[in-house]
Amino acid sequence: LMWELDGVIYEDEDGQHNRTISKTYTLSLNDKSSLRKDLRAWRGREFTDEKLKRFELKNILGAPCQLQIVHSKKGEKVYADISGIMSLPRTMPKPAGTQTPVYWDFEENEIGDGVWLMIPEWVRKRIEASETYQYITQGQPGHLTDQRIEEIQTYKSYTAFRADNTVTDADIPF
Who's near 134: CB < 8 A, 6+ residues apart? Predict the structure, then answer.
């Protein structure tokens, strides 16, 4: 997940933009998962069983929050890490973002589509290193279970990639 930091500006050839910060999660809403703990803090309340069943990660796109950021030094580098997330006070106006919110998912999108190209390159590289991506593009299952492979085969990114990269008799020059 990435957040835009309102008022923390950088400038490039396209103009001024708010800086972003990210945190990597395992896609799990288990009681002990970091994602669930952070979502609970962001919402300011626990999920009911019914809300948890219907929760869609894309629904948090553009939702405001406050982040607590801690800077730590490792060697010569200083890193900014998110240590806490909480809801925005009701009296605080929602900040206007400078960047378009982006949601990309193997299930709903195609590799290389317009949304894919909006993802920062360093994030695309992490996705490309995943077993899911490797299975879709190379057919290499890695440590994927048979059940996970069957699930991936229903994804839009899988079916689109396989359709675009199917060898036919017309592709064989002899």
Answer: 140, 142
Q: Are 20 and 1 in contact (CB under 8 A)?
A: no
Q: Which helix (H) or strand (E) segment is 123 a member of?
A: helix 121-128
Tokens of 20: 């972003």
Q: Give 42-62 pLDDT, tens digit per residue.
A: 999 999 999 999 999 999 998
Specify the amino acid at residue 134: Q
CA dist list (Å): 51 to 27, 85, 171: 16, 20, 50
Backbone angles phi, psi at 159, to 5 degrees: -65, -35
Determine what percent of the chain falls in helix, strand and coil, rounding each to the nearest 5: 35, 20, 45
Beta strands 66-74 and 77-86, pairing class: antiparallel
* Distance (Å, whole) CA 133 – CA 116: 13
Alpha-carbon distance 166 to 74, whole Å? 47
Which bin fits 156, alpha (ψ -120 to 50), beta or left (φ > 0)? alpha
Q: What is the pLDDT of residues 78-124, one digit of tens each?
A: 999 999 999 999 899 998 888 889 999 999 999 999 999 999 999 99
State the sign of the Cα–Cα–Cα–Cα dihedral 105, 108, 111, 116: negative
- The Cα–Cα gap between 19 and 8 comes to 6
